[in-house]
Design brief:
single chain, mainly beta, seven-stranded mixed beta sheet, 1 helix
């Protein structure tokens, strides 16, 4: 199983980035999937997670209205559109998958992790 994240970079506050996660070796129909970030010196935080069939999507208040997750199970791709970025969004962003949505929401050791992609937002 591989979750290959890409799309990070340096952006000014107020700008946008789109992260992509290419999943291989697993049937996305059987997994909740989403994005977890970790900023320097902070705990990991689930920032956008969706249930197996996309019926439920979770965003914490810190990103609600600015981040949008989408998934294409057929193409095995997951995207995170991030708008109106803030310096506080600076972090390494990881794609994660687990049969249970809550495992990603609460970051309780999701079954699969990708390598991170760094997002840096300058003020």
């Amino acid at each position: 199983v591989q979750l290959q994240a890409s799309g990070g970079g340096l952006v000014q506050a107020g700008g946008s980035l789109r992260l992509s996660c290419a999943a291989s070796g697993l049937d996305l129909d059987q997994y909740a999937i989403g994005w977890v970030r970790q900023a320097p010196g902070k705990e990991r935080e689930g920032v956008a997670c969706t249930s197996r069939r996309g019926l439920s999507t979770y965003y914490p208040d810190s990103v609600k209205g600015r981040f949008t997750l989408s998934r294409d199970n057929a193409e095995k791709m997951v995207y995170l559109q991030m708008n109106n970025l803030e310096p506080e969004d600076t972090a390494v962003y990881y794609c994660a998958a687990d049969p249970v949505l809550h495992a990603i929401v609460a970051v309780t050791d999701p079954k699969y992790w990708g390598q991170g992609t760094l997002v840096t937002v300058s003020s």
